[in-house]
């Protein structure tokens, strides 16, 4: 049997290691699926604050409600980007029932901006007179944000019914999708001004626009 020196054995192992390294494919590190890159920052979480608007006196002095919310895309503990949504189902020509897909006065507005722009929009041209907001931002999931966006983007096509599919229902559904606390239920607060005034727990007082 032929004797091998230690140097020869080490050389053989080095050669095998080089061959193994050449045959191995480089694999790029995987990013978390939930991460979204925005403006060169990785969004790690989302925070939201809801807004409820009222227009007084409204039809038959019952008031009229609209909705808005502000989203903060967070990168760790820093705010990466802020955007807002606002909108309402205004009704049309005082009709008590409007079929789906027919003009119901529904609208929404999106913008990469702060809440000041949203408040100005609600005041003019839409004539809302007061608002309240959640006292603190809350952490929400991306799925919750998508649900709220789907509802508010569908305002113009949802039709209208003075009983059960009106301005209050539309506002309630958006904020409910985002998990807003203390919302007054439209079924037991049938006047929009009552829904507004009785949404209290976790919310600010009323502020004039």
Give the terminus-to-terminus CA distance: 98 Å
Written as H for each helix and E for each strand, in order along the chain, the element string is: HEEEEEEEHEEHEHHE
pLDDT under 50 segments (min length 5)? 1-38
Count of runs of 4 or more consecutive helical residues: 5
**Percentage of residues in DSSP E strands:** 25-35%
Relative helix content: 25-40%
Main sheet, how many strands, which sense, barrel?
7 strands, antiparallel
The overall strand count is: 11
- Residue-averaged pLDDT: 85
Category from helices, strands and their pairing:
alpha+beta
Which overall shape is indicated by the principal axes computed on the Cα atoms?
globular
Q: What Rg do the Cα atoms give? A: 28 Å
Protein name: DUF4105 domain-containing protein
Describe this structure in words.
By secondary structure, this protein is an alpha+beta fold. The protein is 27% helix and 29% strand. Mean pLDDT is 85; it is low at 1-38. A hairpin with a 2-residue loop joins strand 1 (36-38) and strand 2. The radius of gyration is 28 Å and the shape is globular. It has helices at residues 6-23, 115-123, 142-153, 167-177, 192-198, and strands spanning 36-38, 41-43, 45-55, 64-75, 78-89, 97-98, 106-111, 130-133, 138-140, 160-161, 207-208. The chain is built from five helices and eleven strands. The strands form three sheets. Strands 3, 4, 5, 7, 8, 9 and 11 form a seven-stranded antiparallel sheet that branches. Strands 1-2 form a two-stranded antiparallel sheet. Strands 6-10 form a two-stranded antiparallel sheet.
């Amino acid at each position: 049997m032929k004797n091998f020196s230690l140097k020869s054995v080490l050389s053989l192992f080095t050669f095998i290691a080089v061959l193994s390294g050449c045959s191995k494919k480089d694999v790029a590190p995987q990013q978390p699926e939930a991460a979204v890159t925005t403006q060169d920052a990785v969004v790690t979480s989302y925070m939201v604050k809801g807004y409820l608007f009222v227009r007084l006196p409204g039809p038959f002095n019952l008031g009229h409600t609209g909705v808005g919310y502000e989203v903060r895309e967070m990168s760790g503990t820093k705010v990466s980007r802020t955007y807002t949504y606002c909108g309402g189902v205004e009704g049309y020509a005082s009709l008590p029932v409007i079929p789906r897909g027919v003009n119901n006065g529904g609208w929404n507005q999106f913008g990469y901006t702060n809440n000041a722009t949203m408040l100005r929009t609600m005041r003019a041209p839409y004539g809302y007179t007061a608002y309240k907001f959640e006292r603190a931002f809350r952490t929400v999931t991306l799925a919750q944000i998508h649900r709220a966006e789907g509802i508010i983007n569908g305002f113009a096509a949802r039709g209208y019914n003075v009983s059960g599919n009106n301005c209050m229902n539309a506002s309630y559904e958006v904020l409910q999708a985002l998990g807003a606390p203390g919302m007054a239920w439209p079924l037991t607060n049938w006047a929009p001004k009552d829904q507004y005034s009785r949404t209290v727990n976790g919310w600010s007082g009323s502020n004039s626009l």
